[in-house]
Each structure stands twice: as structure tokens, then as C-alpha cells.
Backbone:
């Protein structure tokens, strides 16, 4: 996942907390070995190599994660899609093939056989990348271990983009997570809002986080799976719910879905809240939907 | 005592290979009545679940029984197995089940009796490393495995690694000249402590920290790397000296958190070994230093060959990928792509698809059961590695060099 994970555990004996954190960190490493696109021996690498030729059997855990990715894909009307890897790969290494790549994008190219617990691609060229959901899944599984060992106050994050809060901090009612405006100059790191979390997860995505230059163009790394083009309408999307896995996927999807569809999603899924940073006339404009507790909104 | 120069090494390797093949024939599977191998896993802690996960990805395997005395581990194991397995807390009940294969991933002090009972019941057995915690137990297991009609494999997963096999073929072919030294280390930054709230479970869950149930760093890490050293050198050590201590984790544990040892092999060749829980710098690796070059194998993921300036050029060298390590440039050892020179009589090493070594070792176990293939690591090399580690612990405890007796490594 090529991401830095940090866990903050509070209360009780330091040695005990460290042992809990180590077990949680081992869990992250285990999941990375299984789903990383960058590890040739991972199950995802194997699926991408073979699933166009044959059905690839996977373990229960990965199959359930793929089913969840498929479900979120349907719920978001295709805005979250684990098959966008070929487009990202194209932007990273070669341009001008997006039209051809579009035929291999879409979850309908991925056949999940529940009885056989196998994955099969409909056509050659399809590839899956759990980069948009894997960090959240690893954080959620790590948080499960932390909770299982009786730690009631903790904050776990992956690369500062996906956070899971357990309970509240020892000196406050909720964990406060600052949302930085990605368009602010790197020296200033202007805070656009603070989101309060208690037994909730938060994820933030922005097309301005990582960008590619292709010819004269400048593209964000979040792709609209339908058009194959960079989704640049939202400056930054924040998703909040109980599950880090789900919010990791949804924050990416909200960038693609934009204001109206994000609002619709949150009203249909009451357990999910969202905060969008949108282009305003002078500063960013904030749009808040569903269950999300925002302090200090600093936008227009 | 035999010299470990290249010529002698090749002779020795051939002898070892022959003896493995002979035992392999005696302990071979070759049939599975139903086509599906019904497996039971005893011990569903961290390592047991790693193996379970591999098995659950394979066709023709049914995980039919799970056993653990700690209910949360059993529950996690059941989730991986897919929910249809029977669960037990007494391993003897698992052995009584209608199963072809038993996988043992318990603390090592429990290995010997479980293996003996499972082999006695006519099961194919895979047992995690180290083989056992005493020389006597290692020998009992090795003797039983030798006479068993079923497959017995020990979990030295690097034996299933194409990278390691490929690198060994380089060494055997003399491409790094005469082996002078092996260096190996396994350094991590970890307390090795499992979280335990109820003190009744302390020794059960933190078995790695107590001498009655653990060989410490030598048992958990050293046994794997000593096996690799023995395998590549085609020899066993003649003596060992070293020190160990608890420098960081003074929390009531009995096993060292750092060890440094020198294993002397025939002909003055040495294996210099270090393991610790106190720093992760440089992680884990094995390095084979020869007169013409050095092979560095880093945690099973990557291998590099560094040639001496006066070593002969290889025909394929110009096509090979290179990678810098500090000032030195190494040739990337790729078991899938590299072509050896014809004179080595191994034209192309085909490793097949990249898979995790834990997957491969389970696959090798199943191939041995179904097709009667030799296992990558049977009881005898596992005994040699385990005994070397047991003696190494004794040497550190006594603070004096220990000579290995010829009988130490014999079944």
C-alpha cells in the first residue's frame, strides 16, 4: 500500500498498549501482502495475471472484500470502481490509450462466483486495484484487533487520508481531525474544517493530492470510471461512517459523484456523512451532507 | 572432516540430494482416495492461520478440522476455513478424524508428540519449524518420519522458494567461486509480546518468550536460516560460539532479545549469525560470500549477485537487470528470467508463477501427497537445523564454545 500507518493508543499500561499496537501493525502487513498491487506474490497480482484465462480461487477474506467493492460500485452507480487500474497505469506510463482502456473498465468485467469462491475477468486487459479501499480495510481490521484487546481510546490512520477513531481521546469528547485545503500553498496548509469523530472512521480524497502530466495536460489521480477522465470537479471529499473500509471507497467515489449525487447518496444511506470542498468564488465552498459533525468551517 | 571447497561441495551436495531422494521414496504419498485432500490444522494462532489461508486458496483441498485450545484463535481459524470445518480443543480427536493430512502449527514443545501420534495414525504430516525443542525429540520425530509410509514435511519455506533454489544452482555451479563465509541476520523491531489481559493466558499466548515452550530467536528465526546455511554449504557445523542477552525487553521473558553467533563449518568456512528484536535495520537476509562473487538474498523477495572485479564475465550478464546497493552494483537474480551459461548444465531456470513461499510449501506438501513427489524439506535437514539451534542456545547459556558430536545430526 506504500503508505505510512500510525496508531495512537491511550490508557493503561504502556507495554500492553505496545503489544496491542504491534499485533495491529502485523495485521496491516498481512493484508498488504495479500492485496498490494506492488507485491508480485500478492493475491491481487495473481488475479491480474491469471483471471482473464481462468477462474482464480481466493480466500474467504479477499472474496468478501471484493464483494464489498462490487456492492459499493453498485451503490455509487459505478463512481467507485476497482477496475480503473489500467487507466491509472496508462497515465503513469503512457498516454493516448484511454479509449482502448475504457473497454476493460467496469465491474461487469469482474465475475465473482460465490459458490466456487473464484474471480474471473470477462476479457483480457482487465485489472483490479484495491488501492481505493485497501488502506481503509487494513485500518478497520487493525482497529478490530485494538478493540478486541479492550483498548477503548485510539486513533489509527493510514497516510493521513483514512482514519479510524475508537472512543474519544482521554482529554476530550471526540477526536478532532483537521481537513486541509489541498489548494492552499504547501507552506500554509490552510485548514478548511475540523471533523469530530467518536467510534467513527473518516477518509479524505482529493484529485489534487497526486497528479500526472500527460502532454500539456495535468490530471488528478482520481478517475471517473465512466469517462476515463480525471475527476476534477470536487477539490476534496470527506466521508464519515462506522467502517474505515467503506469511507475509503466512498471518499473517492464522492470526488467523482460531485455535489448533487453525493447528497442523494447520503440521504439514501443515513449511516454515511460527507463534506465536500468545492470551488467557491473567492475561497473554497463547503457542502455538508448526512451525519457528520464539523467544527470551525472556514470556507465560504 | 570434509573440505568445503567447490569440488568437495558438489560431491557433498550430490550425496545429500541422494539421501533426500531415498528418504523421499520411503515416505511418499502418491494417492488420495477421494481426489480431494482432507486436512486438519492443529494450532490456529498466527502461523496456523497463515497456512490455513494458503490452503483455502487451493483447489482439491478440504479444510475439515481445526484445533486450538484458545477459543479466539479457533474462531479466527474457522472464519478463514470457510465455516464448514469441525472444531476441536484436543488434538488427538483431530487425528482420529477421517483426514488425509495434518498440519501442525503449535508451539514447538508440542510438535514431537503430535507428529508421532499423527504419523502413527497413518496421516500425512506437515509440521512447522523448528522440529522440536530437544535433541531427543528431534531424533524421535526423524526416526518416525523415516519409517512412515506417509509424507512428512517441515515448514522451512525457503526450500520451496524459486529464488533460493535458483541461487543455490548458482552456488553449486561455482559461479561465486569457493564459498568462504555465510552471513545471515533477522532483525526486527518488536517486543514479540502478545497482548494478554488475563494472566492465566500469559504462557499460552506468549509461548515464544519462555524456554519451556520456545527456542527463542534461534528456534523461531535461526532454525530457518541455519537450514539455509546447511543447505547451501551442503554441510553441518562442527562447532558454535556466541553470546546472547536481554538488552531491551526486560519484561520477565526468559529468551534472549539479541543473539550473535559464529558457526564453524568444515574447512574454516563460517556462518556469522545475528538475530534481534531491538532494531529492524537491514531486516533479514542471507549472504553467501565466495571467492568470485557474493549472493545476497533479502528476505526471500530479492536476490542480488555481486561479482568480484577479477571474476569471469557471464554470457547473459549484459541482459540481466542490475541494481545498486550502496556503492556496489549487483545483478538481480530473477528465477523467472535469468539464463545460466550452458556449462552449468542448467540452461534455463523456470520458476513458474510468483507465489508467496508459504503458498508454495503447502503446494509442495499436497504434490507429495497426490503425486508422490519428494517434499522440499523432510525430517533430516530439519533435524540438522533444529539441533544446531538447540546447541547454539546451550553455548550461549554456558558462555563457551560447543563442539557438535557426529551423533548430533544423525537419526
Residues:
Amino acid at each position: 500500500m506504500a503508505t505510512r500507518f500510525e496508531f495512537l493508543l491511550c490508557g493503561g499500561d504502556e507495554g500492553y498498549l505496545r503489544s496491542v499496537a504491534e499485533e495491529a501493525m502485523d495485521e496491516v502487513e498481512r493484508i498488504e501482502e495479500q492485496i498490494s498491487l506492488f507485491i508480485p506474490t500478492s493475491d491481487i497480482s495473481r488475479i491480474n495475471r491469471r483471471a482473464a484465462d481462468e477462474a482464480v480461487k481466493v480466500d474467504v477474506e479477499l472474496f468478501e472484500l471484493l464483494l464489498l467493492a462490487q456492492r459499493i460500485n453498485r451503490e455509487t452507480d459505478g463512481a467507485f470502481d476497482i477496475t480503473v487500474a489500467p487507466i491509472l497505469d496508462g497515465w503513469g506510463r503512457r498516454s493516448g490509450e484511454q479509449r482502448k482502456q475504457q473497454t476493460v473498465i467496469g465491474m461487469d468485467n469482474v465475475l465473482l462466483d460465490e459458490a466456487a469462491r473464484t474471480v474471473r475477468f470477462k476479457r483480457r486487459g482487465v485489472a483490479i486495484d484495491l488501492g481505493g479501499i485497501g488502506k481503509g480495510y487494513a485500518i478497520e481490521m487493525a482497529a478490530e484487533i485494538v478493540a478486541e484487546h479492550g483498548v477503548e481510546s485510539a486513533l489509527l490512520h493510514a497516510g493521513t487520508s483514512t482514519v479510524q477513531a475508537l472512543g474519544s481521546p482521554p482529554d476530550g469528547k471526540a477526536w478532532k481531525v483537521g481537513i486541509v485545503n489541498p489548494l492552499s500553498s504547501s507552506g500554509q496548509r490552510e485548514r478548511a474544517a475540523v471533523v469530530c469523530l467518536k467510534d467513527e472512521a473518516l477518509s479524505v480524497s482529493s484529485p489534487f493530492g497526486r497528479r500526472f502530466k500527460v502532454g500539456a495536460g495535468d490530471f488528478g489521480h482520481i478517475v471517473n470510471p465512466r469517462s476515463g477522465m480525471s475527476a476534477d470537479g470536487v477539490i476534496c471529499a470527506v466521508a464519515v461512517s462506522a467502517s474505515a473500509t467503506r469511507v475509503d471507497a466512498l471518499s473517492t467515489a464522492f470526488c467523482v459523484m460531485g455535489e448533487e449525487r453525493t447528497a442523494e447518496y447520503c440521504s439514501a444511506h443515513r449511516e454515511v456523512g460527507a463534506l465536500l470542498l468545492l470551488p467557491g468564488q473567492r475561497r473554497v465552498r463547503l457542502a455538508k451532507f448526512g451525519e457528520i459533525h464539523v467544527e470551525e468551517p472556514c470556507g465560504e | 572432516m570434509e573440505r568445503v571447497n567447490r569440488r568437495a561441495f558438489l560431491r557433498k551436495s550430490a550425496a545429500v540430494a541422494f539421501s533426500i531422494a531415498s528418504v523421499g521414496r520411503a515416505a511418499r504419498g502418491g494417492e488420495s482416495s477421494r481426489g480431494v485432500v482432507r486436512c486438519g490444522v492443529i494450532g490456529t494462532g498466527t502461523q496456523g492461520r497463515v497456512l490455513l489461508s494458503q490452503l483455502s486458496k487451493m483447489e482439491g483441498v478440504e479444510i475439515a478440522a481445526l484445533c486450538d485450545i484458545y477459543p479466539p484463535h479457533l474462531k479466527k481459524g474457522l472464519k478463514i476455513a470457510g465455516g464448514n470445518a469441525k472444531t476441536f480443543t484436543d488434538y488427538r480427536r483431530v487425528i482420529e478424524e477421517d483426514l488425509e493430512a495434518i498440519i501442525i502449527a503449535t508451539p514447538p514443545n508440542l510438535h514431537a508428540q503430535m507428529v508421532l501420534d499423527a504419523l502413527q495414525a497413518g496421516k500425512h504430516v506437515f509440521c512447522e519449524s523448528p522440529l522440536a525443542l530437544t535433541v531427543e525429540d528431534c531424533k524421535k520425530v526423524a526416526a518416525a518420519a523415516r519409517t512412515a509410509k506417509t509424507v512428512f514435511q517441515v515448514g522451512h519455506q525457503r526450500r520451496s522458494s524459486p529464488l533460493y533454489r535458483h541461487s543455490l544452482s548458482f552456488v553449486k555451479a561455482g559461479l561465486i567461486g569457493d564459498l568462504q563465509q555465510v552471513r545471515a541476520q533477522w532483525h526486527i523491531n518488536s517486543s514479540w509480546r502478545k497482548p494478554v489481559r488475563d494472566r492465566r493466558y500469559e504462557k499460552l499466548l506468549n509461548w515464544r518468550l519462555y524456554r519451556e515452550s520456545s527456542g527463542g530467536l534461534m528456534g523461531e528465526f535461526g532454525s530457518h536460516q541455519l537450514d539455509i546455511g546447511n543447505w547451501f554449504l551442503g554441510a553441518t557445523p562442527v562447532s558454535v560460539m556466541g553470546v546472547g542477552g536481554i538488552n531491551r525487553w526486560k519484561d520477565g521473558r526468559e529468551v534472549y532479545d539479541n543473539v550473535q553467533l559464529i558457526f564453524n563449518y568444515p574447512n574454516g568456512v563460517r556462518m556469522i549469525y545475528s538475530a534481534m528484536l531491538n532494531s529492524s535495520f537491514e531486516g533479514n537476509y542471507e549472504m553467501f560470500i565466495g571467492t568470485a562473487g557474493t549472493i545476497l538474498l533479502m528476505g526471500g523477495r530479492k536476490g542480488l549477485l555481486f561479482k568480484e572485479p577479477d571474476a569471469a564475465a557471464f554470457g547473459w550478464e549484459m541482459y540481466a537487470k542490475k541494481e545498486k546497493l550502496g556503492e556496489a552494483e549487483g545483478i538481480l537474480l530473477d528465477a523467472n528470467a535469468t539464463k545460466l551459461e550452458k556449462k552449468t548444465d542448467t540452461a534455463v531456470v523456470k520458476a513458474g508463477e510468483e507465489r508467496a513461499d508459504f503458498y508454495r510449501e503447502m503446494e509442495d506438501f499436497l504434490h507429495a501427497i497426490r503425486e508422490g513427489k519428494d517434499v522440499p524439506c523432510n525430517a533430516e535437514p530439519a533435524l540438522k537445523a533444529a539441533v544446531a539451534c538447540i546447541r547454539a542456545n546451550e553455548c550461549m547459556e554456558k558462555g563457551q564454545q560447543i563442539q557438535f558430536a557426529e551423533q548430533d545430526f544423525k537419526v
